Amino acid sequence: MSHQGYVATPPYSQAQPGIGGYPSGFGSSASQPLYGHYGGPAQSFPPPQPGGLKPTGPPSSGMPPPGPNQYSPNNLQNGAHTQRFPPPVVSAPSSSSPFGQPPQPPYQNPGAAAPTSQLTHQMSAMQIGGYGPGSMQAPPGSSAPQGFQPGPPHAMSRTSMPLGPQSPQMGPPSLPAGALPMGGMSGAPPMGGMSFSGPPPPSGSVGFQPPAGPPGPHGFPPQQGSFGGQMAPAQTGFPGSFPAGTAQLAGPPQKKLDPNSIPSATQVIEDDKSKREGQLYITNLKGQVPPLVTTNFMVQDQGNASPRFMRCTTYSFPTTSELAKQCQVPLAAVIKPLATIPRNEGQLHLVNHGETGPLRCNRCKAYMCPFMQFIDGGRRYQCSFCSCVNEVPPFYFQHLDHVGRRVDFYERPELSLGSYEFVATLDYCKNNKTPNPPAFIFMIDVSYGNVKSGVVRLVCEELRTLLDALPRAENAERSAIRVGFVTYHKILHFYNVKSSLAQPQMMVVSDVTEMFVPLLDGFLVDFQESRSVIHNLLDQIPEMFAETNESETVFAPVIQAGMEALKAAECSGKLFIFHSSLPTAEAPGKLKNRDDRKLLNTEKEKTLFQPQKGVYESLAKECVSNSCCVDLFLFPNQFVDVATMGDIPLHTGGTLYKYSNFQIQADGDHFLNDLRNDVQKPIGFDAIMRVRTSTGFRATDFFGAVYMSNTTDVEMAAVDCDKAVTVEFKHDDTLSEDNGALIQCALLYTTVGGERRLRVHNLSLGCSSQLADLYKSCETDALVNFFAKSAYRAILNQPLKTVRDILVSQTAHMLACYRKCCASPSAASQLILPDAMKVFPVYMNALMKSCALVGSPDVPIDDRAFHRQLVLSMDVADSQVYFYPRLMPLHNLEATGAALPPAVRCSEERLNDTGAFLLENGRLLFLWLGQACPPDFIQGVFNVPSFAHISTEANSLPELDNAHSKKLRSVIDHITQQRGHSLKLVIVKQKEKLDMVFRQFLVEDKSLHGGASYMDFLCYVHREIRQLLT
Ligand SMILES: [Zn+2]
To answer: In this structure, what is the dihedral angle of CA atoms 111, 117, 119, 120, given to the nearest 10 degrees?
Structure first.
C-alpha cells in the first residue's frame, strides 16, 4: 500500500496525491468502475437474498401521525447514543486527565515530570515533512510569525529528512543554546513564541534509526488479527521506548518544534481549491469523492445526487462489519434534502406519473431511480436495493437499446439523474386529502422587557414590508401562505384581521391552562387581501403595549395556541415566536432558574443540557404530528433555559435564534437580517424522510432537527434549505465490491404552494475489502460533522469528560488502524496520517474545545445549550467553519485581486500588531485590529484618526468612499453571501476586553477554558496510537 500519510507528502510546490485520492488516487482504483447505466456494461445483480428484505408498508405508511404512546424518552432520538459512545476502550492514562477538568492544563501529569519530557521527545521524533515554506501562510508584509526565518534549507530539508537525531533514543537533540522548549508541552501556552528556531539537520541523518527496545514496526503484518483485541488494555507510558523518562529531563534545552510543520487545515483547503475550484463535478461515478465544501465548484448531475444534497464520511464502505469495527471510521451521510442549488446548475426536474403516483419497488418501496436494472426486454426491472424483480406497468414500458438501457433514458429524470421530484398522489397526503397551503403565525411577546428593548416595535415595523416577501411556489404570482398574529405576556391576544374589517379586533384568552383558539374566521388570512387591516394592526401593537408593566411571560401555552390554530385550519405551518424571558408566570410549562454553575465539570453537568420533562415533551410531539414548526427568536437578558425552550424548535425542524442583551443599535440589523432570511428561505412542511439502502447495510441512527417516533421515519414539521440530517449506517451483512453501496433518501413534503411532493436523492458509494480504499475516500469535514453531532447528543446522557475521552480514543483508533493496515512500515516514532484525514486531529481537537463540550464559568449555560442545538442541524460547510474558523489577514487587501484574502492558520501566531484580521465561524465575524494598525487603514475603514478613536460598540462599518473601506466591505459582503445569512460583526482591539473572547476562536492555540493546543493534542494522539500499536 503506497498511500502514505503526510510524512511522505512532497512539499506543496509539487504535485500531491489528491485529497481523498481524487482524481489521481481514486481514479486508478478498481473500485470505481463506470456505473452500469453510464456507458459501462450492464450490471447483473445477485438473486434476492432472504435476509435483505426491508420493512415494507403501504405507500402512505410513513404518513399517519405518530401514535399516542410513541413519544417517550426512549423513542426520542436523544436516547440512542450508546452505539457511538460506548465506554472508552482505551482510557487515557488515568492520571493525566487529558481532556479533563478545565482549567487544569491538559495532558499534564501532576505526578511526574516524565510525561512532559516524553511528549517533547516524542514530538521531536515525529517525522514532519511536506510543510516547508510553501505552507507558510504569512500574509505579505506581516510580521506575525515572529522569529520565523524562512530559510529554505531548514524547512525544505525537513520534507525529505527525518529529524532522526532528535529521537529520544539517539541522545539529546542538538540545539543552539537559548532555544526554548516547546511551551505547550508543559501546560503553559506558548503565547506567540512557538517559532522555528531549529538548526539545519545534521548532514547525513537521512536514515532514521528506530528506537531500540520495542519490537520495531518493520514487518508489521497488515490486516491481521483483530485490532480491538490488541488495544484493549489501557497502558501508561510508552512501552519500551521510554524506560526512564525522567532521565531525559537532564538534557540540554529541547528543540522547539516548528508549528508550521504540522498539517495545516488552511493548506488543505487551498490545495483542494487549486486543484478543483471552478471545475465541473460530474456525478457519474460510483464512490466518487467530491471537492471539499470550501471549494467552489459546479455540479452536473449524471446519476448521483450532488454533494450539495449529500456528503459522506467516506465514499468507499468496507465490505464487512468486521472491517468497519476494525477501523472505527463512522459510516455516515450528511443529507441536506432541500439544499439551495445555484441558478446555473438548474432546478430539480419534476416527474408526474398522474394518478399512478411514483413508481416503487414492490418489496422495499424504493423509488424508481438510475440504479434500477431493466431486464426481459424492458418488461421487468430488478431493484438494486433489495434485488426484487418487478413488473414494469404498461404505461411505463419502453424498449431497451443494445446495452440494455431504456431508449427513453435521457427523457426521464428518474432514470438518468441523482436527484428529482415526483408529484405525490393523495396516498401520500394526510387523511388522503390535498393539503391546504401552510400558514405563518407571528407571536410577539409584549411584556415589559421586549417592549423596552424595542424588539416589539422593530418586529412590527419589519413585518409591514417583510410580508410582501413570503415564499411562493415557482411561477406563482403571490404567496399562498396565510398569516396570523398573536401577542402575549401572561395572557394571549389573538387578532381578527379579516379583510372586510376596518379595524383589527383583539380577542383575549386569559385562561392559559386549557389553551383554545378564540376565533377561526379571520385569524389566518391572505396578506395581500388583508394588507390594510394588518398594517393597521402592526401600527397599533407597539402603542397598545408601550406602557405595559407586565414582566412575566408564558411560553408553552403560546406554542399550544399556535399549534391549535394550525390544527383548526387543517394546515401545516410555522410559528415565529419573539420571546424575551424565562416563562415564570403560572401556566403549563412554567420554568425555573436552574443555572447552577456548581454543576460544571461534575457528573451532573449533563443535566444542564437536558430539557425539562413533561409539558414540553408532549408539546413537541403534538407539534410534529400537527406539522407545526416553531422558530424561536430569543432576546434574553438573563438565564432563559435554552435547553428546554430550544428543544421544541429542535424537534420540529425549526431554528433557534438568540440575541443576548439585545441592543437595537448594535444588534437590530443582525436580527432583522436573520428574520428576513428565515421568512423568505425555501422550506417544505409536514415532511417525512426515509433513507433506504442496498442490502448489507442500513441506516441506524439520525442526528438533526428531527423527530423520530420509530426507527426509520425521520419526521420534521418543516424542513428548510439549511437543515441537514446526519445519518449513520451499520452493516447487517456483507457488501459486494461489484455492486457498491446504494443510498436513496426520499423526502415527502408539502410545498409553500400546498403541493405534495416527493424529493428523491440517490448516491452510489464504492465498497472495498481494503481499508486503504476507505481511508483514501474519507471526507474529514463530514467526519467532523458526524462526531460533533454524536458528541453533542451524547452530552445529554454522559459526563462531558467521558464524551471527550471517547473522541480522543476514537481519533487514535482510526489513525492507528490506518497505520497498522494501510501505511508502509516505518518507525514507531513517526506519526503517519492518511492523506484525506491529515487535518482530522486539528478539527477533533477544536470540537473537544468547543464551548458545549468544555465547561467554563465564563460561558453561560444558555450559550452552551444554544450552540449544542445549533450544531445538531448543521450541514458540512457550516460545521467545518464553525469548528475551524477562517482567519484572514486584511492588510494589503487592495494588492490582491481575489474576492477574499487567503486564510491563515487559526492561531495567535498569525496575528501581528501592525495588522488587521477578519475571523469568521459562520455565525460571528470578528474584525481584529492590531495596536499598531496603520493609521491610513483606520482612517479609511472607520473614518477616525487613530486606533484609540475606534469604537468597539458598532456592529457595522461606515460606508466610506475609499479603497480600504470599499475592499473590506466587499470582503464582508462576499462572506455573507457565501454563508447565505448575516453574521454578527464584532470589532476587537488588540489587548482590549474583547480580545480574550476573540482568542477563544483561535483553535490551534491552547484554550483559556481548558483544552490543548493543536501541537499538544497531536503529541497526545500520537502517544495513544503508539500504545495501540504495541
Ligand atoms: Zn426493492
So the answer is: 150
8 A C-beta contact, residue 729 and residue 333: yes
Backbone angles phi, psi at 392, to 5 degrees: -85, 125
pTM for this entry: 0.78
Backbone angles phi, psi at 590, to 5 degrees: -60, 135
878 Cα to the center of ligand 1, angstroms? 34
Alpha helices of 417-499 — where are they, by DSSP H?
A: 448-452, 455-466
Neighbouring CB atoms inside 10 A of 701's CB total: 22
Residues 6+ positions from 635 with CB-CB distance below 8 Å: 449, 450, 453, 455, 578, 579, 580, 659, 662
Q: What share of the chain is helix, strand, coil (3-state, %, to 5)?
A: 35, 15, 50
CA 317 to ligand 1 centroid distance, Å = 21
Specify the amino acid at residue 55.
Answer: P
Q: What is the DSSP letter of 522?
A: T
Query: Ligand 1 centroid to 696 CA: how many Å?
Result: 13
| Eight-class DSSP state of 456 | H
Distance from residue 67's CA to the centre of ligand 1 (Å): 27
Residues 820 and 772: beta-carbon distance below 8 Å: no
Sign of CA dihedral 848, 849, 850, 855: positive
Q: How many CB atoms are closer than 10 A to CB 681?
A: 16
The neighbour count for residue 475, using CB atoms within 10 Å, is 6
Going from the Cα of 692 to the center of ligand 1, the distance in angstroms, rounded, reads 9
DSSP state letters, 266-320: HHHHHHHHHHHTT-EEE--BTTPPPPPTTS--EEE-SSS--TTTEEESBSEEESS
The pairing of beta strand 707-708 with beta strand 714-720: antiparallel
Quick one: which of 132, 110, 140, 128 has its CA closest to 5? 128
Strand partners, 493: 487, 508
How far, in Å, from the CA of 364 to the mean position of ligand 1? Answer: 4
Distance 35 CA to ligand 1 centre (A): 19
What is the model's pLDDT at position 830?
86
Distance 720 CA to ligand 1 centre (A): 29
Antiparallel, parallel or unpaired: β 439-445 and 482-488: parallel
Pick from 256-265, 433-442, 716-725, 946-955: least confident: 256-265
The pLDDT of 844-854, averaged and rounded, is: 94
CA 385 / ligand 1 centre spacing (Å) = 5
User: How do residues 139-153 score in pLDDT, each as one tens digit?
Assistant: 333 333 333 333 333
Ligand 1 centroid, distance to 381 Cα (angstroms): 10
pLDDT digits (tens, 9 = 90+) for 29-59: 333 222 222 223 333 333 333 333 333 333 3
Query: What are the φ and ψ backbone dihedral angles of 752, each rounded to 5 degrees?
Result: -65, -20
Q: Residue length, the chain?
A: 1030
For residue 388, how far is its CA from the centre of ligand 1 (angstroms)? 5
Q: Show the DSSP H helices in 555-682 as ranges.
A: 556-568, 615-625, 642-645, 647-651, 664-680
| Long-range contacts at 269-272 (CB < 8 A, ≥ 24 apart) | 269/294, 269/295, 269/903, 270/902, 270/903, 271/12, 271/16, 271/19, 272/19
CA-based R_g, the chain, Å: 29
| Ligand 1 geometric centre to CA of 51 (Å) | 13
In 3D space, the residue among 74, 179, 1 whose CA is nearest the CA of residue 617 turns out to be 74
Task: Tell me if 957 sits within 8 A of 965, measured CB to CB.
Answer: yes
> Which are the contacts of 821, defined by CB distance < 8 A and separation ≥ 6?
222, 223, 227, 326, 327, 771, 772
- Rounded to whole angstroms, how far apart are CA atoms 893 and 645? 43
Cα(809) to ligand 1 centroid in Å equals: 39
Query: Cβ contacts of residue 100 below 8 Å, gap of 6+?
Result: 106, 801, 804, 1010
Tell me, in angstroms, the distance from the centre of ligand 1 to residue 998's CA: 53
